[in-house]
Amino acid sequence: MAEHINLLLVDDENDFRQILAKRLTRRGMYVREADRGEKALQMMEEQPVDIVILDIKMPGLDGIECLQRIKANHDMTEVIMLTGHADVHGGVTGIKSGAFDYLTKPVELEHLIRKIKQAHHKIQRILAEKEEAAFKERIQQQMVVAERLVALGTMASGVAHEINNPLAVIQDSAGWLHQILEKPEMQNMPRIDDFKKGLNRINTAVKRAGKITQQLLQAVKTQTTEMVDPSTFVEVSLKKLTDEAITLVEPEASLKNIGITLESCEPHPIAWTDPLQLLQVLLNLLSNAIQATDAGGRVTMILAASLEEAKIIVKDTGCGISKENISRIFEPFFTTKEADQGTGMGLYVSWGIITGLGGLISVESEIDKGTTFTITLPVKK
Amino acid sequence: MYKTSSYIMLVDDEKDFVEMLGLRLKENGENVIAAYNGKECLDTLEKKQIDVIILDVKMPGMDGIETLQKIKAQHPLIEVILLTGHGTIQSAVEGMKLGAFDFLLKPADFQELTKKLNKARERKKEQMERIQKAEAAMLLRQSKL
Lengths: 381, 145
Ligand SMILES: Nc1ncnc2c1ncn2[C@@H]1O[C@H](COP(=O)(O)OP(=O)(O)OP(=O)(O)O)[C@@H](O)[C@H]1O
Ligand SMILES: [Mg+2]
Description:
The complex is a heterodimer.
Chain A: E1 6-10, H1 14-26, E2 30-34, H2 37-46, E3 51-55, H3 63-73, E4 78-83, H4 88-96, E5 101-104, H5 109-181, H6 192-223, E6 234-237, H7 238-255, E7 259-264, E8 270-273, H8 275-292, E9 298-305, E10 309-316, H9 323-326, H10 346-356, E11 360-366, E12 370-378
Chain B: E1 7-11, H1 15-27, E2 31-35, H2 38-47, E3 52-56, H3 64-74, E4 79-84, H4 89-97, E5 102-105, H5 110-144
Helix pairs in contact in B: 2-3
The complex binds adenosine-5'-triphosphate and magnesium ion.
């Protein structure tokens, strides 16, 4: 048998149990044995099993009680009951308490094996259903996030547009005064340096505000799919692009003594995409990873590809992201950094770009262990 | 200064913006004329010799692109620099195809604006010289005939 099934055989009749165990082992199953219900429960705590074959009539904890405790603590484990010759009643009680089925002793081996396989199928089916439900839930979540981000983006870009004009006026007013202060006839003006200082501050602040509106408008622009310009799509070697991104952040990383490594599958994956925009996303993810990681840590980039999609993974050994924060990190302006360290636009912009490129971006994180961002891109359009 | 012989027109519906940018350019010795919408811009062009136009894309009524088309149809030698917001970069591309000299994202860096302005003026001058030469050559040929 290809798949290994973990069995626990519970029966107080030693001869019967040992012979059965031997036969089942010969048929490729992993078999452990217990001669009492209490012992069986203890063994299951230590190492889980797929299927328990359980005698109903045992001294101490009897089969039915044992069954109930197994079902209470191990909901993925199936139990096949063994009943005495004329004990139909026991078998029925067993099924009512959640047993998969019952067999009467003496047990016919082929019959038992068939039952074991059926029980195993049931377990696998339930596992598959659970996985599917989890997958649907994930997609659902991603859609909710996407909707919220789009709404936020629409509002934010409206604000950004309106703010751009007054910003330009402020910038030029300050610039004009500065130009005047540079004139030869102004050089003897009292406190000229204070004036220049004030104007410089206005100028830096306006530049910062301008950068934010710029990023916002760009993010909103790239994520609205109709604006994606496929003429900028080319075949991109992800290895080359990643190398380039790493080179660009290397100085920042080496300041903190953080090593960046790249692992790529062979042949190197190729994506059909916009290299400049993708590069910007990689830079955002890398600089986040470096900022989140303590000196001496490590950042790993992994490239993988299948027939339909290419994956770029950025993994760090940094501080991780808390449960409360992880659902918000893609929002515009969400940041945990000091005001002059981050504006909270990096991931929002990245999300917009990847969505616009027809891909997906997702995150997994564990506090104090590290964070992994995964980008999935279509290989060909 | 050679600059003083050239004229620049600023076109934007935002009065404060036109005024401040105008003041900065004047401080640099430029001759600046303001217009607050596309129609005013075109009307002024009938009366005044303009070398370079700095034109906002987003204006109520006749927008920057339409204005640009009319300018280029009636005064093909005038160079136009477009000012766009980031959301309207698409129209900047369209504008370039329609013959704009260049474009700048708002809020534009003044240094950059000055650089592009000088380049635009330079090209206008070269074009004019070429035309004058061609005209001179034509006159010469005609007189020989
Ligand atoms: N690799 C990471 N490890 C831990 N936290 C992260 C990581 N990447 C992002 N974050 C969290 O998500 C937040 C948002 O990230 P984002 O890149 O959008 O903005 P930022 O880095 O704070 O600022 P900006 O990128 O605009 O300079 C960060 O402030 C940080 O709390
Ligand atoms: Mg960031």
